[in-house]
Amino acid sequence: MTESVLIERRGFTLLITINRPEVKNAVDGATSRALAAAADELDADDNLRVGVLTGAGRTFCAGMDLKAWQRGDKPSIEGRGFGGMTITPPRKPLIAAVEGWALAGGFELMLACDLVVAAEGSKFGVPEVKRALVAAGGAALLLPRRIPYPVAMELLLTGEAITAGRAAELGLVNRIVPDGAALDGALALADVIAANGPLAVAVTKQIARAQADWTLTEGWQRQAALYKPVFDSQDAREGAAAFAEKRAPVWRGL
């Protein structure tokens, strides 16, 4: 049987590919478990600094495998969410490379990523209500926090899709590239991030994701506890030395 998720190391980047093109990369239980395992590998390996999530063929992800769901095969993992990562995404940065459709759970996997590179012809939507379902993998909860409330409600309540251009206007997409170039664009963006201090990158993401649950006063205190070990790290000293010596830094993650 073909593996439902493929992983490949590209330097400091872990490329994660949903590999079910015959069903437009719809996610079943086995795929969710494989995605969760890939996210764990990204976080556990100090030689990896960034992840890129994409789909095989011409579709990013069409969401939940409805036929598998009808058989009782659920695509969510307790405590981790749809695809094993919508509730608990990786600690390290994750970039979505979107070609074709990012629908329903596929859209929610995109929301779990930190950055999005999308092909010009790609489309995005949460059509769950059209099937009498709820976008419970994160869209109903997170979308109104990410874009203006009336726009979020239009997407959630009509189930209609939007273009990559419109998604970029709303701030859901970072970069638009020609069709077929989303993966190359995401890998190039990953290389830029991977060139930075890995401890600093991971803690910056941790603060940025957690701040929505903090008051401003609490945030200053909580972020101090997180960033102080980074400032005391060997990498921080290496960064200052490399700047002074006008050379490229050599990060050790220590």
What does this structure look like?
The protein is of the alpha/beta class and 254 residues long. Helices cover 42% and strands 17% of the residues. It has 10 helices and 11 strands. The chain has helices at 29-44, 66-70, 105-112, 139-146, 149-158, 164-169, 182-194, 198-210, 216-231, 234-244, and strands spanning 5-10, 13-18, 50-55, 76-77, 81-82, 94-98, 101-103, 115-119, 123-125, 162-163, 175-177. Helix 8 runs antiparallel to helix 9 (216-231). The termini are far apart.
What's the SSE blueprint?
Blueprint: E1 5-10, E2 13-18, H1 29-44, E3 50-55, H2 66-70, E4 76-77, E5 81-82, E6 94-98, E7 101-103, H3 105-112, E8 115-119, E9 123-125, H4 139-146, H5 149-158, E10 162-163, H6 164-169, E11 175-177, H7 182-194, H8 198-210, H9 216-231, H10 234-244
Parallel strand pairs: 2-3, 3-6, 6-8, 7-9, 8-11
Antiparallel strand pairs: 1-2, 4-5, 9-10
